[in-house]
Design a protein that fits this description.
Layout (H helix, E strand, L loop, with lengths): L1 H25 L22 H24 E4 L2 E4 L20 H12 L3 E4 L4 E8 L3 H12 L12 E5 L2 E9 L7 H7 L23 H11 E4 L3 E5 L5 H15 L4 E4 L6 E6 L3 H8 L20
Antiparallel strand pairs: 1-2, 3-4, 4-6, 5-6, 7-8, 8-10, 9-10
Helix pairs in contact: 3-6
Length: 307
């Protein structure tokens, strides 16, 4: 309101100046000699120096702010997306990166933590790390573009790297977000710290239901899902305890009416979630709008073309 009042006062100030000019010019008083401009005053041609000054003023403002606005405003899929250029630099300390965060972004990040994603934390902030096989580069590029447009990571395009593991050449691609102090609550939810100071393995936080959206579910399936012929969809949840798996299965049934089965993954306290084929009429329309085309085979729709 203070800014609005300031603008109004400035507008009235200039209205008064122009009103005085036009009142004197259109109806000069006898004190002015009943003529305009008054006798003895030589008026400047408005189409010479005043016009030049106006052109310089407007063009300088356009040159200064146009690149900034072009970077901030982008049209994508007929929607307006703000490219927060002030955030797309790693030089900002994590304590200054405090959000707020869009619910869609949080759902994607939480979905990645249910799958292959993980987090790193220092004493000030936390960041998300995305790691995939080299053949999944298109998916990683899609994730990077999603987060880059919203100011969460560097502009450096993820590339395929190689390394030797157990005498075998492996290809991978990865990238990380910036470190945010406002991500600490997510880290603390998935990686609680014991009283001894030891960090536990990844768990399912109690607040997961709020962010288990269709987008999060799609990310989870693309990361850890797999189609089992004649059975349905399996999600590898062997990194979570049976208690956590039962908890998230109950959320899926309560929130989306998705009935699941929990089977042992073969290891000690390792279990997988299965979506029987009869669940597909509910599951597929739910996640399909958010699935990357490469991973549609996990819904038994297409097969990837790997050269």
């Amino acid at each position: 309101m203070g800014v609005a009042l300031f603008i109004v006062s400035e507008a009235l100030f200039f209205v008064a100046i122009f009103w005085t000019f036009f009142h004197s010019a259109l109806s000069p008083t006898v004190e002015l000699g009943a003529m305009w401009p008054p006798m003895g005053i030589e008026a400047i041609n408005p189409f010479e120096l005043p016009l030049l000054n106006t052109v310089i003023l407007l063009s300088s403002g356009n040159v200064k702010y146009r690149p900034k606005w072009e970077n901030m405003l982008k049209i994508n899929n007929k929607s307006l997306t703000f490219n927060l250029s002030i955030l797309t630099t790693s030089r900002i300390p994590s304590t200054k990166r405090i959000g707020p965060h869009n619910h869609e972004v949080l759902c994607l990040l939480v979905g990645s933590l249910l799958g292959d994603g993980h987090m790193e934390k220092d004493h000030l902030g936390s960041r998300f790390c995305f790691y995939q096989k080299g053949e999944h580069i298109e998916y990683v590029l899609w994730l990077h573009e999603f987060l880059l447009k919203r100011g969460y990571c560097k502009e450096d395009i993820p590339k395929i790297h190689s390394r030797i593991i157990h005498d075998k050449l492996n290809y991978y691609c990865r990238f990380r977000t910036f470190t945010f102090s406002s991500f600490n609550w997510i880290y603390d939810g998935f990686y609680p710290t014991f009283p001894s100071g030891q960090i536990s393995k990844k768990i399912i936080p109690s607040w997961i239901e709020e962010y288990l959206s269709p987008l999060a579910l799609a990310i989870w399936i693309m990361d850890d899902g797999g189609w089992i012929d004649n059975r349905g969809l399996k999600i590898a949840t062997n990194c979570f305890t049976l208690k956590d798996v039962k908890f998230i299965a109950s959320i899926l049934e309560r929130k989306y009416n998705l009935k699941t089965a929990i089977h042992s993954a073969g290891g000690i306290d390792q279990y997988n979630i299965y979506f029987p084929k009869k669940n597909l009429p509910i599951l597929v329309p739910l996640v399909l709008p958010y699935m990357h085309p490469y991973f549609l085979y996990k819904l038994n729709m297409v097969k990837p073309n790997i050269s």
